[in-house]
Amino acid sequence: MFHHPLMDDYKQALVEQLEAEIEVWGEVAELRGLPIALMKGTTKETKEMIVAGYYDDSTFDAFIAPLNTEPKTNELITYEGKTYFIKNVEALEMKSGFRITLQLAR
Predict the structure, then answer these.
(1) Which domains are present in the chain?
(2) In a 3-state reduction of DSSP, which class is residue 66?
(3) Per-residue pLDDT tens for 86-103?
(4) Measured between alpha carbons, how far is 61 from 77 in angstroms, rounded to an integer?
């Protein structure tokens, strides 16, 4: 597979943009005992899954910057004093970050 050096610049630009948005609008959560920043923003797909009954009303999406290791389904995140399961993980373009779907652990 051909890899052009500009692709690294493009990925870095995507990461920096996401990090800048999270810095402005993000909130603090905890994953694996470490603080992370996330930006809440539920997608149309997740809202439709809530309406269809696949997810409950506590479910929302969040965007996070790249981590040393990818977040995994069923990992726990603490956010606003509550514990959530990661229900879905989607890598953003070029793994410049992740969209995770969180549901309140009961």
Answers:
(1) 22-104 (2.40.10)
(2) coil
(3) 999 999 998 999 999 999
(4) 12
